[in-house]
Amino acid sequence: MIFRSVPGSLSRVLGALFLCAALVGAAGCGGGSAPAAPAPARSGATAPAWAKGMATVRADALPQQAREVLALIDKGGPYAYRQDGTVFGNFEKVLPKQKRGYYHEYTVRTPGERDRGARRIVTGEGGEFYYTDDHYETFKAVLR
């Protein structure tokens, strides 16, 4: 045995570790299929149907300013910018196609910016919440 000078309990632990490593290695070998891509971390939150296939972010992981806007949306305002609550046209076609008026946008203040900045929350009539920090180029579905 290769663990002759190792105390008994440590020898058993090391043996178990080697066995686990061998089993994991064997499970990952053969079959010819590529390993599955890791699932995005959701910390217990399950993505709703409208968010399938999208990048997601938990609401509590958003910047503080975005969490404040979510709270204002829940309360119905008041909002900091006159454009808040207006129709979002989805002209970039990044979000799922819907009839005009389905989506509405809200400004997420960016510290240090003199104008509205690039960050927004976009809501859908079906209860969807999306976050963008690059002025509509990409969106993440907000898990609440």
Automatic annotation (TrEMBL):
Keywords: Hydrolase, Nuclease, Signal. It comes from the Bacteria. Residues 1-26 form the signal peptide. The keyword Hydrolase applies. Pfam families: Ribonuclease. InterPro entries: N1-like (IPR000026), Ribonuclease/ribotoxin (IPR016191). This is Ribonuclease domain-containing protein.
